[in-house]
Write a structure and sequence with these properties.
Blueprint: E1 17-20, H1 28-33, E2 38-44, H2 47-51, H3 53-63, E3 67-73, H4 79-89, E4 96-101, H5 103-115, E5 142-146, E6 158-163, E7 169-174, E8 182-185, H6 195-213, H7 220-241, H8 248-268, H9 272-279, H10 288-310, H11 315-328, H12 335-352, H13 368-374, H14 386-396
Parallel strand pairs: 1-8, 2-3, 2-4, 4-5, 5-8
Antiparallel strand pairs: 6-7
């Protein structure tokens, strides 16, 4: 059955040097310059440019005697994007890659830093691909500066690489050495993010916290981190999506939750929603956060049903109930009611923030069986059969 107090036995990935707080962006050039003069700056196509921060950063690097090169990323990183950037910048003796943007920008920068010292294409090192090879971990130093709060990529050891369409994929380039050298989180960078992107990226972070908390590989360390993240998230998420969007303290709570989610997922793994992120995300062009947002309530409901069928006092049910109390602000008397409250809270957010259905992104009904067959999730709270996985998709199709 279940051991109430199993012996402690775990390993932890390294963390970057973390600099967190409003106004920290002003010190970024000095941090980058500590690695050398040739700086590859990877940014997104819109937010940083519109705010003027991109120009501010480039000028501060130049005034510090550095030589910055700018790469603008306008989509999730593909093998072609990574290989093209590596080919363009390999001979410039880049001293550090500095990525400032959302999760896709951070993943692009992380992958480029990992491949600049390698002569092979990135496809050879992507998990699950034909001819997969383990990367040796050599990289150019990497600094991650998120401008959205969700993926936690600023503290993880993987970069998600995608090729969308039939026979497409969405999988990771991974090595313990790929954890960024420095993570700088400035909530002021997030105050202009749209409500839609705030909601989607925030729900990605919430999903990661909840899945890592209930993972079979969770530890007291990751439990403490996930609960801390959930508490901050519950306090400020809805405000960040609405009237508190311009408040750096509100944004700081959600950014902190995303940071904790990244540390937790790197050490405890993720569940079925992120399993679908790979199989669905490789087939249709759907933002990762949006996929998490639309599936989380139904996936949580299905996990709870399956856990109850195994053991009414399963430890994961107790964790779901605790998460329900944190996110709703209401502590129920029993585990069953707490689990129900969690699902109700997630459904309330789903309705309030109008998370779109999968078919609105072009997912065809006839694709569901193939997606289920291709979906894996060893770190889910409970093993789900194909019928259970299909029920989740159907509810949000």
């Amino acid at each position: 059955m279940f051991t109430p107090n199993p012996p402690l036995d775990f390993s932890l990935l390294p963390l970057p040097a973390i600099h967190f707080g409003a106004g920290r962006f002003s010190g970024l050039a000095e941090l980058a310059g500590s690695f050398g003069n040739n700086i590859l700056v990877v940014t997104g196509a819109h937010a940083l440019q519109r705010s003027g921060r991109s120009t501010e950063l480039m000028e501060s690097l130049q005034s510090g005697g550095m030589r910055p090169f700018l790469l603008v990323v306008d989509r999730e990183p593909s093998p072609e994007l990574v290989n093209g950037a590596v080919s363009k910048y390999r001979e410039l003796a880049i001293d550090v890659v500095l990525a400032v943007g959302g999760g896709s920008v951070l993943d692009a920068g992380k992958a480029i830093s990992a491949m600049l010292l390698c002569d092979l294409p990135v496809e050879r090192f992507i998990e699950g691909q034909e001819g997969f090879m383990q990367h040796d971990g050599r990289k150019v130093p990497f600094i991650a500066v998120p401008t959205t709060s969700g993926t936690g990529s600023e503290v993880t050891n993987n970069a998600v690489i995608s090729r969308i369409g039939r026979n497409g994929f969405k999988r990771s380039l991974r090595h313990a050495a790929f954890v960024p050298d420095i993570a700088l989180i400035d909530p002021e960078l997030m105050t202009t993010v749209s409500p839609e992107l705030t909601a989607a990226s925030g729900m990605d972070g919430c999903t990661q916290l909840l899945e890592a908390f209930t993972s079979p590989f969770a530890t007291p360390y990751t439990d403490a981190i996930t609960c801390s993240g959930l508490e901050r998230f519950s306090r400020s998420f809805l405000s960040a999506c609405t009237d508190g969007s311009g408040d750096s303290a509100v944004r700081g709570d959600v950014a902190y939750a995303a940071l904790m989610s990244g540390i937790a997922l790197a050490n405890a793994g993720l569940g079925i929603v992120h399993g679908f992120a790979s199989s669905v995300g490789g087939l249709i062009d759907i933002p990762h956060g949006t996929l998490c947002a639309t599936l989380l309530a139904e996936a949580t409901r299905e996990n709870i049903v399956q856990l109850r069928a195994i053991f009414e006092s399963h430890p994961a049910l107790q964790k779901y109930a605790k998460a329900g109390a944190i996110l709703s602000g209401v502590a129920d008397r029993d585990v069953h009611a707490g689990c129900e409250r969690l699902v109700e809270t997630l459904e309330e957010w789903q309705a309030l923030l109008s998370f779109p259905r999968l078919r609105s992104f072009g997912l065809a009904f006839e694709d569901l069986d193939g997606i289920v067959a291709a979906t894996r999730s060893k770190s889910n709270a409970v093993q789900l059969d194909e019928a259970a996985m299909k029920r989740i998709l159907l509810k949000r199709w």
